[in-house]
Amino acid sequence: MSASAAGGPRRRRVVLLSPQDAARVARGEMTEEDEENARRRGIDALTEARARREDAPGGGSANDARLRAEVPPHWS
After folding, report:
1. 25 lies in some domain
2. What integer pLDDT is reported at residue 19 of this predicted model?
3. Is residue 13 in a domain?
4. Which tens digit of pLDDT belongs to each residue from 28-42?
5. Higher-scoring residue by pLDDT: 56, 52
6. Does 64 map to a domain?
7. What is the DSSP string of 6-69?
8. pLDDT score recorded for residue 23
9. Which domain holds residue 62?
10. Total domains present in the chain
């Protein structure tokens, strides 16, 4: 049984913030790690992959064409 479950003193987690994160917290913003975690919870893998494809130079169609050309005959 843990100390907090037994009614004992509860331990607090101490985190050393980087200077950038300390400035963010002072402004009332989330730390970089917390912001990234919130972003990841709000977006699914497919949406993220589509966004990356749109940002990529040359677009995703060049890769799709290459992959279609490499399809084995028994898959067609």
Report:
1. yes
2. 92
3. no
4. 999 999 998 888 888
5. 52
6. yes
7. TT-PPPPPP-PPPHHHHHHHHTTPPPHHHHHHHHHHTS-HHHHHHHHHHHSTTTTHHHHHHHHH
8. 94
9. 19-71
10. 1
